[in-house]
Amino acid sequence: MSKNSRFQPFRHLPYRAAVTAQLVAVLPVLSFAVWVVGRHGAMSENDAVLELQWHAEVAADAIAREAERALTSMRVLAVQERAQAGDVDAVRKMAETIVKTDATVGSVSAFNRAGHVVLHTDLAHDRPPPWRPLPMGAHAIFDHSSVWIAGMGIESALADLTVGFAVPWRMHGVTTYGLRISLKPAALGVVLREQRWPDSWTAALLDQNMVVVARSRDEEKYLGTRATPSLKALIQSGKPGVSYSRTQEGIEVATAIAPVRGTPWWVVAGLPRTELSARSNVPMGWLVVGGATTLAMSLGTSLLLMRHWSRPPRRMRERGIGRSY
Known about the structure:
five-stranded antiparallel beta sheet, 48% helix, 325 residues, alpha+beta
């Protein structure tokens, strides 16, 4: 068989026409499929972002309920008849009952304008804690009869990290003491983790000083540390919606921020950016592979058919009958 008599598909007009027809039919379909998958990927990313924001808001609401419960218990204690009459011992006994019956409460204490602690549920009557001046913001209790919310810090009476709320304790209509309830960060961490975060996500509770009060992962390692610069800048910007920041581990995450109602705190939640991108990249990759495979199989089938259809003319040409295409 001569070299010129070999089957050369692209020299055959029917084959070229078949290939062209297949490309005209397949490529628009593939283009539309790419657009559909792209839209699906964008919607999948959007759904993940909405789920992230929803989880953060649900967690913030759970923390807010704990804060409201703690504040309510102090307000109720402060308006008791014996409390308003100045019976410190009676208030101590009621405070001790609160601590014993509520696992989230670390202690209850009372202090005057000068910073002296007049009662503390973890200390005996004859063991007054060391004096310390009132923290910034605590004077509002006496000056404006308003609530003071303390961020993460070491309580003056004990060497424990706590967060707390203080309400005015009035005697005969005058604010004489501040009545403070201190919450255990570990207990708030339990509330945060009860939201059942996905394993790859990271959530944290931050106080007004951007200090980590609770965390969904590695809490013991990062408790009391400050938020990363990128997260701090994101919170301070007040930008709505989900943006990007980095976790303490250095992972870039899509970050949702939810303020804790009634407090200057925030719940932040992060979804790794790589995981978010994979929601759209994986379907697109499968589409490209599937489209390329389908097109190759279609063209290959056309080639086999044309070889089959071209056999009679080839036999005739081998015998010198007719002429080549």
